Amino acid sequence: MVIRTLLLYARAVVQRLTIGRAPVKRIVAVASAVWQAFRRATGDDAYERYLAHHRLHHGGCGAPLSRAEYFRAQQRRKWEGVRRCC
Asked: Measured between alpha carbons, how far apart are the two ends of the chain, in Å?
C-alpha cells in the first residue's frame, strides 16, 4: 500500500513536469518527488509539516516547538496511557 502511494505521488509530479525540460532535470525532479513521498510515508518530514501547519493555523499564537520538544511530545502522545483493547 505504501509503495502504491509513493508511485502514485511520483506519477502525479512527473505529469506536472513540462515536456521541454532536459532529461537530466526531469530525472532529478522525479527522484526528488520520490524522495519526498518516501519521507512523507515514513514520517521523516513530520516536523517540517508541523512547522507549516503552525505557521498557517497558529501564526500569532507563540513560537512553535523546537525539534526536540516536538519529538518528545509525539513520543508522549504515542506511548502515554493505556493503549490496548482489554
From this structure: 29
